[in-house]
Amino acid sequence: ISDVDPYNIRKNSKMLNADDFFKLIESPELAEAVRIRANVPLAQVNVQLANIVSEAKLALRLLNTPPVGPLKPDSRILEVGAGIGAVSTLLRARGAQVLAIEPGIPGFDLFESIRAELDGRLSGLLAPLVPRAAASLDFKIDGYFDRIFSVNVLEHCQPLDLTLDRLAAVLAPGGIMVHTCPNYLVPYEPHFQIPLVPFLPKFTTRFKPSLKSDPVWRSLNFITSQDFKRAAKRNGLNLKFES
Question: Of 19, 90, 171, 177, whose CA is between 20 and 30 Å from 162?
């Protein structure tokens, strides 16, 4: 749509081996450095690093299996809620044009320390993060993407309907979106590992009042499969669910 590349998404990193990258993320040396920088318990750091690697491997698997993959080297890709940018970094290393957006959500502040320590060890190879919400996307500015993906992000996106519509609007003809997130028709909250009040999940705070002040809980929109069905109908998209 335009030759302008304001986010430098066309610049590719030099080849970065995924296995080596993941070993670095889960290394004791990185964990200790992040612990010192963030001043948090080492166990908390290790859990977060393991989650980053697990989610990155899941994203790469989803992006390289039918009907999503295989990716073409020059694919234009949008990562929604990129976290530290691990997946986008690897995709750029494979030659993809990647826009990684990460607005930042309270409760996930540890990402900043992890990214800072990684960046120092990788000499600027990390994909740049753009501090934007998906609801701000505009095809006139951002163009279209062949692939759009997120891993455990959409449940935090506000406002939900606008977010889903904006993502649909920047999906290229023939493009594919793949998202993983909870389906809150199931009365369970995976971040907190607690049961929810069925069909009225926000009412769970009546039984656990401490949730009211938790930034992660307050970010949740309690997305369901029905939200996806309505969004697909509004935007003329084909939809497929997998457990």
Answer: 90
Half-sphere exposure in the Cβ direction for 20 (13 Å, CA): 6
Cα distance between the two ends of the chain = 36
What is d(CA 208, CA 235) in angstroms, rounded to the nearest whole number? Answer: 38
In single-letter form, the type of residue at position 152 comes to N
pLDDT at 11 over 80: no
Using CA atoms, how far apart are residues 128 and 109, in angstroms rounded to an integer?
17
95 — alpha (psi -120 to 50), left (phi > 0) or beta?
Answer: left
| Helices and strands, counts by H and E, the chain | 9, 7
The predicted-structure confidence for 179-229, as pLDDT tens digits, reads as follows 999 999 999 999 999 999 999 999 999 999 999 999 999 999 999 999 999
pTM: 0.89
Helix, strand or coil, per DSSP, at residue 188: strand
The pLDDT score that the predictor gives to residue 166 is 98
Torsion of CA 23, 28, 33, 34, to 10 degrees: 70
134 touches 169 (CB < 8 A): no
Q: Which two tokens stand for residue 221?
A: 């929109």
- pLDDT tens string 18-49: 999 999 999 999 999 999 999 999 999 999 99
Most distant CA atoms of the chain, gap in Å:
54
Element (H, E) at 110: helix 110-122
Dump the DSSP string for 94-107.
Answer: TT-EEEEE----TT
Q: Which two tokens stand for residue 101?
A: 């957006």
Contact 165, 136 (CB under 8 A): no
